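Q: what sequence does this backbone want?
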């Protein structure tokens, strides 16, 4: 069976997407800008077959720290209006009912075991979704302070992005994505300061003792919603993330392989249903919700993967 031909699109929202297939598995990135978010997006897919049947490789997958990874969505940018980390969500949204395979319940339990912060309504008959707080779900995450004054021009912003993402590094846009690294001290300092002001019981010792040695510690720490609410990200915060895993295969066929021994042939269920990876605002809870309203909030960015028409 020939591998599926894929088309990749990206943009500030699902309604404002442009093709970026030509830069998949390259050192180039797609620049996006809206009133809510500005930054860059890069996509890498192992053994990627584009809409013309051309197979492209990427040096990204040769990196020692990315062995076993089969796909990656990297984003570097900043939120242009302040927002607390509990309201910044990342995950998948769909525009119609999903055709779920037998045994999907076990797969979902595994997903929730891996990410206890996952929220979803995948059984929705109209708009299924699965979203998690970005700061708690991302396997790789970094932070850096950048100028946030109103007179900051586009060139200086682009310079900050290119410097932080180290585009010269083979096969990857993100320089070093780990909130555990010392270069993220500025974010941790502000987190600690906010906790100190609120005298949170989360801290058992001096503020300076709070450190993350790895992504697991960071993810565990931010599982708590109240903890996430203490972090505010805005124009002065350059965030770099790499959402990369190895459970999704694109060659020789499209398959989902979970460590628990479960394998799903997605081509049997993916009826040309676009898969959208989005970063969005958490839906605000209101007393009255209009019929047909999206179960998610404002969009920051979107990457869509779809099977190209033959």
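A:
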């Amino acid at each position: 069976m020939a591998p599926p031909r894929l088309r990749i699109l990206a943009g500030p929202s699902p309604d404002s997407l442009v093709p970026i297939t030509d830069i998949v598995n390259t050192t180039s990135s797609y620049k996006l800008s809206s009133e809510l978010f500005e930054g860059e997006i890069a996509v890498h897919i192992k053994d990627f077959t584009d809409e013309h049947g051309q197979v492209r490789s990427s040096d990204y997958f040769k990196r020692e720290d990315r062995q076993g990874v089969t796909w990656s969505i990297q984003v570097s940018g900043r939120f242009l209006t302040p927002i607390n980390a509990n309201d910044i969500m990342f995950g998948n949204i769909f525009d119609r009912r999903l055709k779920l395979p037998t045994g999907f319940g076990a797969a979902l339990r595994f997903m929730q075991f891996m990410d206890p912060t996952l929220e979803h309504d995948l059984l929705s008959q109209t708009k299924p979704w699965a979203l998690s707080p970005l700061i708690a779900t991302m396997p790789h995450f970094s932070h850096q302070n950048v100028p946030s004054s109103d007179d900051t021009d586009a060139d200086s912003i682009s310079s900050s992005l290119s410097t932080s993402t180290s585009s010269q590094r083979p096969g990857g846009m993100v320089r070093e994505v780990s909130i555990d690294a010392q270069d993220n001290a500025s974010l941790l300092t502000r987190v600690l300061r906010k906790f100190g002001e609120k005298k949170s019981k989360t801290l058992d010792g001096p503020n300076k003792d709070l450190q993350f040695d790895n992504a697991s510690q960071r993810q565990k720490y931010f599982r708590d919603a109240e903890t996430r609410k203490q972090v505010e990200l805005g124009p002065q915060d350059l965030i770099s993330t790499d959402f990369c895993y190895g459970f999704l295969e694109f060659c020789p066929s499209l398959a989902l392989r979970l460590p628990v021994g479960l394998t799903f042939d997605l081509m049997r269920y993916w009826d040309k249903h676009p898969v959208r990876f989005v970063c969005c605002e958490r839906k605000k809870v209101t007393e009255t919700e209009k019929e047909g309203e999206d179960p998610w909030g404002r969009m920051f960015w979107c990457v869509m993967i779809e099977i190209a028409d033959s």
